[in-house]
Structure formats: structure tokens, C-alpha cells
Design a protein that fits this description.
The complex is a heterodimer of chains A (795) and B (144). By secondary structure, chain A is mostly helical. Chain A is built from 40 helices and four strands. The longest helix of chain A has 52 residues, at 743-794. Chain A is elongated and about 140 Å long. Chain B has 144 residues and is of the alpha+beta class. In chain B, strands 2-1-5-4-3 form a five-stranded antiparallel β-sheet, with helices on both faces. The chains are: A mainly alpha (795), B alpha+beta (144). Chain A binds chain B through residues 306-307, 309-310, 313, 320-321, 323-325, 327-328, 331, 334-336, 361, 419, 422-423, 426-427, 429-430, 433, 436, and chain B through 58-59, 99, 102-103, 106-107, 110, 114, 117-121, 128-131.
């Protein structure tokens, strides 16, 4: 822009226009809409506009600095006056009318008046500053317009610095630095770019050497001037556009003067990028920071702990509050330690603050830690909007925050996104907290444990028995398991069996109490049914191989039971003992002497029991096996093959006490569902007591189990049908006795029975657990209701 | 106009329950907020002691609604280092749900840890971090 002398009026007008176009008040007008609109309003042909833009150097720069803008306006005036567009014409053409911009430019005129006062200052400074450059420019004009443009461009870059700086008469501290630099540039043209860096960098070098000591940076006297220089380095891009640039850029500038435009373009770009960014760290500075970092942390990829950083920065004698704020800005990852980038940013902020620049609210982009993908965007972002530090230092601090490139917003967004991440995590954790009470829900589905298809021997008799059991089960609603019984009538059997097993633990009392309700007839029927079952079951089973894989199959139980029966039949007492010995899981039952113990409970069931006994003797003389078989059938009727197996085990033992078996069946029949254990317990002792006559002590426990099973089954069975079955069973008695020599089978059968008993017990256990859960749920609901009622009571 | 008050109190032996940071949106009646916060400290202490010794679950940090007064609801949150956050919100602000309060407390906690990470911050000092202030401001604006 050399040689651009403006009259006062022109000065005012141009400054107004510049202010008008300088929407962002960056003092550097990008080729935004307003500029284009302005030029269009000049009513010049497009090519002329382009030429103007090229001449003023804005094309190379990529934006309109104040000087470029003024040149452009002047050229517009020249063009509008009809003069040829040439660089020389700017100054040579005298008495140029003000460039005329039609239409929207009226506003500017109004603005002219408004900004008149501000112009005066600019004018004075402007005129003062302009002369030196023109001298340079004019010197350069010779080589040609192109070259002239080049130096002009460079000079333009310098001039914007100077005009910008000069108006600022009273910026806080930076003006001093500004003026210092002005003095420097005021030197020769060629000297300017070099002289500046020279003196600047020498102190920088001094400080660098001094910094090696570590403390010297902060404590030494030399630091302040170097710091200032550093600040000026970074903070005075206009004057130091040539200076603050990387050394390469300086060289480029020199080359610009001599070389083609390609390098100039690069130079300009580089200059403009640095021009734009007041916070950018120069290479020199960065090197210094890195060296400082090394003094604290030799590993450049390592971290400086917070305490060490605190010591280091405390030496800068900045107030703690500001240091705290600097830390907040620079510790990007909030880890309490500084990486190299964070440290450089912090150091840079300290330097800036030391030189009087206010700390930004947000970390400037150029100081952001160099994340991989963000570096490029940061560089790109520097150009468009960064406040030209050409702005006065007074403006610079306030303008830093608002005029931060829009890309700064990306960082807050990132931070916000991190907050969002935090919130997500919070939410996730809160969702976790919300889901915590899910665990309290009863995990075990009682139905699953209980409701499983139990293979039922689909023999006609069995089917019949099952039906009877089902009906029986439907009648048993007192027991929570009754619905389950509906599903699988095995439950009752299981319960019975379990209860029978529990009998040894001493639930005799319960068993007795529960065995009241049923008349003897059902028992008999049940026994008959069982016998019938056992018949049907045994016959095929005998032929079957020993243990079929699925335990629950009643066939096995029956077969085994039948075997047991045979064994028992062969050796009543002895084999019973042996058989008794087989089931290992059988807890030792009370001795037969003890058996009468439960007889106390008997009175409760006396009626039923008596009837049983009455029936049992009848059965006994028929055949002990029959009694067992009947029991077996009862078990089978309950659709629990396992039970049947176990029953089979028990039955042979019970054989000697057929009476017991009968009473057990009767008891079973008599039992209500709700108290299976009780029933079984009662029935078993009852049976035992009743069957005291034959049985030896060992078989008793087994017997009881069998009895309990029998008791269970009868509960399910219906009485009427059982009577018929019983009759049939009785009729089939003769077929019961089998070959005796099947001890092995008997043992296997007993083993099977035990296992079946185990499964039955497991089912019972699950069933009871389900009951427990139900009760707990009820309790919880009641508690909730209570609590709901409570608050009101408090009021 | 909703009123919100946020307070951070440490458990320092020197000045127990001295607020490190207290701020309320409408600046009038601020003293009333201070008073409410102090009265709620008893409830906070009671809840802390009731929780037992081994409970350091995240869930336990949020104390929930400490007690409702005629106009305000007071929420509490305690960190593992016995730093208490107390928030007083207007009862008329029914839009605030428990989860939102929880998230606000978590944000407070996070910002507080960021403040703590600052080596220039001495525990026991009043919190003068701008970032913390900004976060609290944004939160209070969100509530109101």
C-alpha cells in the first residue's frame, strides 16, 4: 500500500467503509458479503473489481486488511473516475472523488459522521505511518506492478500493523511493546523483517540460556524483557508478521521481494495464519517451553505432576488465583498432571498474563493439546476468524474471547460432549441403581421347579390312577401346591414322599394331624389301586432290563418294587433288613420300639388308622406283597415314578408290615393336601404303629417312606375309583409273588428308588420354597400397605 | 421464580461444615438459604451415620430428599471423603425428578474433583474456580 495518501475526507470515508465491512471487528476484512456488496455497489464491471482486488493485494492475502481495503477503495474511485487501474494511479491521480457506492452505501455515509471522531485519530496516525512505507513501495515500483504489489503486499502487512497500532495510544501495557516494535520496523525496509527478529530473538536466546538454570527464567532480571519479547512475539502478529513467523517465513519474506509470487503466496498464507492467531506459540517459544519441560520431566512423553508444575509456575509470581485459572485452562484432560502440550499451553498463558493480557475464558485453539485429528482443524481454523492482533492491545484482550474463531466452539462442544459422556455415565450408573431392586424378585420360578413333565406310565390302570389323582389334587386347594398338583400330580406324591422321608426327622405329629380327614375307604381304594397298579406295572417291568435311564418312570420303580417285593416275599425279615440296608439315604428311623411313640398321634387318625388296620390285616393274610404292591400302586397313581421306585424299595420293607402299608395308603387317602408332610409323617408312624406286628426295626424307616408315599398318593386319588381298583388289585394278588433270586436287581432297584426319592425330595423342596416365596410376597405386600397407611397415622 | 441454592461443605477438622462454596440463584433471601443448608447438615450427618461403615457404594452417595419444608426441598449428597453437597430447590419446581437431581449432584461431584485436581487449589479454600462457577450457573439456569 505504499504511496496511498488519503485526504482527510477519503480517510474518513475509507475508515467508515472499513468499519462497515469489518463486521467481526477483526480489523481484517475477509472477503465477506459486505465487501462484495460494496464493490458491486460501486457499479464496476466484475473484471475491474477483480483487478482491483488483485492490485490491492487482497487476493494474495486472502482477506482485506485495512490497507488493502483502502487501496481497493481508492482503486474503485480511480476506476469510477475512468482512470486506468494501475498501482500508480492510486497516488498519482489527485483529486479523486470519493468512490461511489450506490444503494446500500448511504448507511455508510451516516456512519461516516458517527465515526468521524474516531477517524481523526486514525488519520493522524495513518498519515504518520504511511509515509515510510510509501517510500519503500515507491522504490519497489520500478520492477513492475507485480513486484510492486509484492512489496506492497508485504508492506501492506506491515502497515496494517502500524496503523492499527498507532491509534492505540493508551492500551494497557502492550502499547509499550507495540511501540517498541514500531521503532524496530521503522528501520529500513529490508531491515525490518530481519532487524526485528534479531533483537527479539537475541533476548529470547538469552532467556533460553538463562532458562536452563530453571529458576532463572522467573527470577532473573533478564526474564521480564525477554518475556515481553516473547509476548510481543506471540502477541504482535502484525508487526511481527515478519518477525513472529517461523524463521522460514522470514526468509520467505526476503525471497518475496526477489522471487515469484508462488513463494509470496506461501509467505502470505503463513503470515496470515500467524497473523490471525494471537495465541499461537512460535517455534522459538515452543522450543523454550520444551526445554523447560525437560528440566522438570526429561521424558517428553511423560507428565509433569501437579505439585512440580505448581512450584514451577509459582515462580512466575502470578497470583495463585490466576495460576489456578491457567491450570484449569491448560489441564485439558483434568488429570492433575501436564503433558508437554498442556505444559506449553500453560507456560504460554503465563507469559501472556505476565505481559498484561487477560486470560481467556476458554483455552485458545492454538493452545489446545495436540490431539491427532484436531491439529489440522486448528490450523485451518486459525485463518478465517482469528482476531487480527493488529487490533490494539486494548482491544486484543477483550476481543480474544469474543472474537475467538468459531472453531473454539468446537472445543466447548467437545467439553460439553465430555459432559454428556459424563452424564451418560451418570445415567448409566443411575440406571444401574434403578435396576438394583430387580435382584430382589424371586428368581427361582417355583413353577419351573415343580412344573415339569413327569413321565407317567401310560398303562390303563395308571391312567386311571392319574385321573383319580388329578381329581384328588383338584380337591386339595388348601395346599398352595395344589395348582401345581393339577399340573403334575406328582407333586402330591413328591410331597408325600418327602414328607415320608422327613418322617424320620420327627414330623410324626404333623403327619398324624393331617391324616384325619380321610375315611378308610379311600385308603382301601387307594391301596387297591396301588395294588392294581403295581400289578400292571410289575408285569411289564419284570421283563424290562434293570434300570431304565429316566428315573421317574414308574415302570422301574414298579419293577424294582416288585423285585423288592419278591425278595421280601422270599425272605420276609432278612431281606427286608437287607433291603433296608440298601437305601443308604434312608436315615435311621426310630426303632420299632419307638414306632409306638407316634402312636400317640394315632388317636388323631385313630379312626382312619383303625380302619386301615382293619383293612391291612385283611390284606396281609392275602399276601404281604400285595400290600406292598398296593402301596406301589398308590405311588404310581401319584405320577411319580420315582416315588414309585422309592415306594418299591419301601414296599418290600413294608411287606412284613402290610398292615402298615394299608394304613399308609389309607392315611394317604385320608390326608389333606395341605399338610403332606404331616400326613406322611402321621401316616407313616401310624402305619408303623399299626404294622408293628411284623416288621423289624430296620425296615421301618423305609416302610415309613413307602407309607408316606402311599399316603401322598391316596390324597390325590379319588376314593371311589380307588375302591374299584383295590378290588381289582386284590383279585390280582396271586400274580404278585416272583422269583426270589434277584438280589442284584433289588439292589439296583433300591438304588433307583433312592435316587427317585432324592428327586422327589428336591421337588418337594422347590415346592416348599415356592410356598415360602409366596408367603414372603404376601408379607411384603402387607408391609407396603401398612406403610401406606402409616404416614397418615403420623399426621 | 424458582430458587435454587447449591452448597459444598467439606468435613474439615478446622472448620467443620464450613461451606466451601455456596451460591443461590436469586440473590435475595440468600441468608435464608444459608440457614436452611446449615439446618440440613444435621440430617446429612444422621444419614451418614445410619448408612454404616462399609457402605461406599455410589448409590449411597446420593442421600436423596433430606427433608421437605414448607416451600423447599433439600437434597443431600456426600462423597467418600465426607464432602457434602446440599441442594435446595423450590418445592414448586415439580418438574425436577430424582434422577435429575442425581445427575446434578454427579456433575457437582465431577466439577469438584476437577477443582481438587488443580494443584493450586488448597483444600479448605473457598472454591473460586471459574469452571466450577460456570457449571453451577448452567445447572441453576437449567433448574429454574
Amino acid at each position: 500500500m505504499e504511496g496511498l495518501t488519503l485526504s482527510d475526507a477519503e480517510q474518513k470515508y475509507y475508515s467508515d467503509l472499513f468499519s462497515y465491512c469489518d463486521i467481526e471487528s477483526t480489523k481484517k476484512v475477509v472477503v465477506n458479503g459486505r465487501v462484495l456488496e460494496l464493490f458491486r455497489a460501486a457499479q464496476l464491471p466484475n473484471d475491474v473489481v477483480l483487478q482491483i482486488m488483485e492490485l490491492c493485494g487482497a487476493t494474495r492475502l486472502g482477506y482485506f486488511g485495512r490497507s488493502q481495503f483502502y487501496i481497493a477503495l481508492k482503486l474503485v474511485a480511480v476506476a469510477q473516475s475512468g482512470f486506468p487501474l494501475r498501482v500508480e494511479s492510486i497516488n498519482t491521480v489527485k483529486d479523486l472523488p470519493l468512490p461511489r457506492f450506490v444503494a446500500s452505501k448511504n448507511e455508510q455515509e451516516s456512519r461516516h459522521a458517527a465515526s468521524f471522531s474516531s477517524d481523526s485519530e486514525n488519520q493522524g496516525s495513518y498519515s504518520g505511518v504511511i509515509p515510510p512505507p510509501p517510500g519503500r513501495g515507491q522504490v519497489k515500483k520500478g520492477p513492475g506492478s507485480h513486484d510492486a504489489v509484492q512489496p506492497r503486499a508485504s508492506a501492506d502487512q506491515q502497515e496494517p500493523a502500524s496503523p492499527v497500532v498507532s491509534p492505540q495510544q493508551s492500551p494497557p501495557t502492550s502499547p509499550h511493546t507495540w511501540r517498541k516494535h514500531n521503532r524496530h520496523p521503522s528501520g529500513g525496509n529490508s531491515e525490518r523483517p530481519l532487524a526485528g527478529p534479531g533483537p527479539f530473538w537475541s533476548p529470547f536466546g538469552d532467556t533460553q540460556s538463562g532458562s536452563s538454570a530453571g529458576d532463572a527464567v522467573w527470577s532473573g532480571h533478564s526474564p521480564p524483557p525477554p518475556q515481553e519479547n516473547w509476548v510481543s512475539f506471540a502477541d504482535t502478529p502484525p508487526t511481527s508478521t515478519l518477525l513472529t513467523m517461523h524463521p522460514a517465513s522470514v526468509q520467505d519474506q526476503t525471497t518475496v521481494r526477489t522471487v515469484a509470487s508462488a513463494t509470496t503466496a506461501n509467505e502470505i498464507r503463513r503470515q496470515s495464519s500467524s497473523y490471525d492467531d494471537p495465541w499461537k506459540i512460535t517455534d522459538e517459544q515452543r522450543q523454550y517451553y520444551v526445554n523447560q519441560f525437560k528440566t522438570i520431566q526429561p521424558d517428553l512423553n511423560g507428565l509433569i505432576p501437579g505439585s512440580a508444575a505448581k512450584e514451577f509456575f509459582t515462580k512466575s509470581k502470578l497470583p495463585i488465583l490466576e495460576l489456578s485459572h491457567i491450570w484449569e485452562l491448560s489441564d485439558f484432560d483434568k488429570d492433575g498432571a501436564l503433558t508437554l502440550d498442556e505444559f506449553c499451553a500453560a507456560f504460554h498463558l503465563v507469559v501472556a498474563r505476565k505481559n498484561g493480557y487477560d486470560l481467556p475464558e476458554k483455552l485458545p485453539e492454538s493452545l489446545m493439546p495436540k490431539l491427532i485429528d484436531l491439529e489440522d482443524s486448528a490450523d485451518v481454523g486459525d485463518q478465517p476468524g482469528e482476531v487480527g492482533y493488529s487490533g490494539s492491545p486494548a482491544e486484543a484482550p477483550p476481543s480474544k474471547s469474543p472474537s475467538m474463531p468459531s472453531l473454539n466452539q468446537t472445543w466447548p462442544e467437545l467439553n460439553q460432549s465430555s459432559e454428556q459422556w459424563e452424564t451418560f455415565s451418570e445415567r448409566s450408573s443411575s440406571s444401574q441403581t434403578l435396576t438394583q431392586f430387580d435382584s430382589n424378585i424371586a428368581p427361582a420360578d417355583p413353577d419351573t421347579a415343580i412344573v415339569h413333565p413327569v413321565p407317567i406310565r401310560m398303562t390303563p390302570s395308571k391312567i386311571h390312577m392319574q385321573e383319580m389323582e388329578l381329581r384328588r389334587g383338584s380337591s386339595d386347594h388348601t395346599n398352595p401346591t395344589s395348582p401345581l398338583l393339577m399340573k403334575t400330580s406328582d407333586l402330591s406324591e413328591e410331597n408325600k414322599i418327602n414328607s415320608s422321608v422327613k418322617f424320620p426327622s420327627g414330623n410324626t405329629v404333623d403327619g398324624y394331624s393331617s391324616s384325619d380327614s380321610f375315611p378308610s375307604d379311600p385308603e382301601q381304594i387307594g391301596s387297591n389301586v396301588t395294588r392294581q397298579r403295581s400289578h400292571s406295572g410289575t408285569s411289564p417291568d419284570n421283563t424290562a432290563p434293570p434300570p431304565p435311564p429316566p428315573r421317574p418312570q414308574p415302570s422301574h420303580s414298579r419293577s424294582s418294587s416288585l423285585d423288592m417285593n419278591r425278595t421280601f416275599a422270599v425272605t420276609t425279615g432278612q431281606q427286608q433288613a437287607g433291603v433296608v440296608a440298601h437305601p443308604p439315604a434312608v436315615p435311621p428311623r426310630p426303632q420299632p420300639s419307638q414306632a409306638p411313640g407316634p402312636s400317640v398321634h394315632r388317636p388323631v387318625d385313630a379312626d382312619g388308622l383303625i380302619t386301615h388296620t382293619s383293612t391291612s390285616p385283611q390284606q396281609i393274610p392275602e399276601q404281604p406283597n400285595f400290600a406292598d404292591f398296593s402301596q406301589f400302586e398308590v405311588f404310581a397313581a401319584s405320577n411319580v415314578t420315582e416315588e414309585q421306585d422309592s415306594e418299591a424299595e419301601k414296599h418290600p420293607e413294608v411287606l412284613p408290615t402290610e398292615k402298615a402299608s394299608d394304613p399308609t395308603t389309607s392315611l394317604r387317602i385320608a390326608q389333606a393336601d395341605g399338610k403332606i408332610e404331616e400326613k406322611t409323617a402321621a401316616s407313616v408312624p401310624a402305619n408303623v404303629s399299626k404294622g408293628t406286628t411284623p416288621l423289624a426295626p430296620p425296615p421301618k424307616p423305609v416302610r415309613r417312606r413307602l407309607k408316606s408315599e402311599d399316603e401322598l398318593r391316596p390324597d390325590v386319588d379319588e376314593h371311589t375309583q380307588k375302591t374299584g381298583v383295590l378290588a381289582a388289585v386284590l383279585a390280582s394278588q396271586p400274580s404278585i409273588p416272583r422269583s426270589v433270586g434277584k438280589d442284584k436287581k433289588a439292589i439296583q432297584a433300591s438304588i433307583r428308588r433312592n435316587k427317585e426319592t432324592n428327586t422327589v425330595l428336591a421337588r418337594l423342596n422347590s415346592e416348599l420354597q415356592q410356598q415360602l416365596k409366596d408367603v414372603l410376597e404376601e408379607r411384603i405386600s402387607l408391609e407396603v400397605q401398612l406403610e401406606q397407611l402409616r404416614p397418615f397415622s403420623h399426621l | 421464580m424458582d430458587r435454587v441454592c447449591v452448597c459444598v461443605l467439606p468435613m474439615s477438622s478446622l472448620r467443620p461444615n464450613y461451606p466451601l462454596y455456596i451460591r443461590s440463584t436469586p440473590t435475595e433471601n440468600e441468608l435464608k438459604f444459608h440457614y436452611m443448608v446449615h439446618t440440613s447438615l444435621d440430617v446429612v450427618d444422621e444419614k451418614i451415620s445410619a448408612m454404616g461403615k462399609a457402605l461406599v457404594d455410589q448409590r449411597e452417595l446420593y442421600l436423596g430428599l433430606l427433608y421437605p419444608t414448607e416451600d423447599y426441598k433439600v437434597y443431600g449428597y456426600v462423597t467418600n471423603s465426607k464432602v457434602k453437597f446440599v441442594m435446595v430447590v423450590d418445592s414448586s419446581n415439580t418438574a425436577l425428578r430424582d434422577n435429575e437431581i442425581r445427575s446434578m449432584f454427579r456433575k457437582l461431584h465431577n466439577s469438584y474433583t476437577d477443582v481438587m485436581c488443580n494443584p493450586f487449589y488448597n483444600p479448605g479454600d473457598r472454591i473460586q474456580s471459574r469452571a466450577f462457577d460456570n457449571m453451577v450457573t448452567s445447572m441453576m439456569i437449567q433448574v429454574c
